[in-house]
Amino acid sequence: MIKILKKQWFVVLIAIIFIGFAVFCVYDTNKDKLPGKSVDGQDIVAGLKDNENITADELYESLNKTYGKNMLFMKFQTAVINQSVETTDELKEEAETYETNFTAYMESQASSYGTDVNTLITQQIAQYGYEEDELSEYCLMVAKMNKMQNDYISAHLEELFTPIYKEGKSRTVSHILVKMEDVDNPTDEEKEKVDKIEKALKDGTSFADVAKEYSDDEASKPNGGYLGYMDDKTSYVDSFKEAAFKLKAGETSEWVKESNDSYSGWHLILVEETDKDAIMKSEKAKESLYEAIANQTENLFNTYLLEASEKLDIQYANDDVKNQIMDILKVEE
C-alpha cells in the first residue's frame, strides 16, 4: 500500500460548490455585454418570438442538469487520484513520455480536424476538466490513473483474470513477419528471406533470435517478435487469430498470409504459453494482460476509484453531492 494511504489524518475535502458554476462563468464573462433586461425581477438571457423569454434561472437549471453532475464527478476523481497516488520521479517520467506521444498524435490529426494542434489539444483535455495550459497536469493524472488501475489489477489478478481465461482462449504469442507486395506472388528477394528464416529455425536458432534478425514488424522485432497476451477479443486480424488458436503451447504455425489496408505479408506464429498461472506470472506479458483485463472488466474504473475513496476520509458538502457521485459510480449504500 502506498505511503500516503497510511496517513490516517489526511482529509480529502469534497466540498464543491458546483451548483451554478457553468452559468456563473458565462454570466461573469458577459454580464457587462448583456442588455440588462428583466421580467418580474428575473434576468433575461434570451428573448424568443411570441414574447417567450429564457431567464438566467432557467438557463442555470438546464446547464446544471446537463453538466453539473459530470463536473462534480471530475472534481471528485481528480481529488481521489491525487491523494491516493504519490507523485514519484518514475510517474513524472511516464507523464512526460505520454505528453510527447499525445502531442505527436494530435499533430498528426490536427489537419484532418481543420484546426491547429494547440486548439485540438485544448479541446481534448477540456473534456476531462483541464485548461489549455494544463497539458502536463493532465498527463500526470493519466499516469497516476494507470498506476492506480495496475495496482488494483495486481491485487485482484486471480479474481479478474479467471473468467476471461475460461472464455477467451488465452495465450501469449510471438511472431515473425515478412512483408510482401503480393502475398500470393512473393518476389525472389521475399522468397529468399522466407528461406533464410526457415533454415535458421531448422538449424536450432531460437524463434526470438530469428525474429530479431529477420522480422519486418519493427514494433515487436527488438523483443524477439514477442506480442504478449492475446485472446478471442484481441484486435488482431482474423487470419492471425485463427492460426494462433489452433496451436498448443510451444507450437509454431505454418506461414499465414495476410493482406489488408495496413500491410501485406506472411506471419509465422509461436504460441509461448496457454497455462493460466504461467501467463499471470509472466513479467513479459504483464502490460498486455493488464490491458486486456481493463478492456474486458465492466466498471473497473469505478470499482478501483471507489475502493481508493473509501481509504480516504472524505467529507462531502451535503448528501446531494454524495448521492450524485455515488449515482455515477453506480453504488448503493
Measured on Cα atoms, how large is the radius of gyration? 27 Å
Judged by helices, strands and strand pairing, the structural class is alpha+beta
Range of strand content: 5-15%
Largest sheet descriptor: 4 strands, antiparallel
What oligomeric assembly is this protein in? single chain
- Mean pLDDT, all residues: 84
DSSP helix fraction: 40-55%
Biggest β-sheet: strands ordered side by side in the sheet: 6-5-8-7
Shape: globular
Distance between the termini: 25 Å
Count of helical segments?
A: 13
Query: Strand-and-helix sequence, N→C?
Result: EHEEEHHHHHEHHEHEEHHHEH
Low-pLDDT runs: 1-35
How many β-strands, per DSSP? 9
What does this protein structure show overall?
The protein has 333 residues and is an alpha+beta fold. Helix content is 52%, strand content 14%. The strands form three sheets. The chain has a four-stranded antiparallel sheet, with helices on both faces. Strands 2-3-4 form a three-stranded antiparallel sheet. α2 packs across α13 and α3 crosses α5. The two termini are 25 Å apart. The N terminus is likely disordered.
Give the topology, please.
Blueprint: E1 11-14, H1 21-30, E2 38-39, E3 42-47, E4 53-55, H2 56-84, H3 89-110, H4 117-126, H5 135-155, H6 157-167, E5 171-179, H7 188-202, H8 207-214, E6 226-230, H9 238-245, E7 256-259, E8 264-273, H10 276-281, H11 286-296, H12 300-310, E9 313-316, H13 319-329
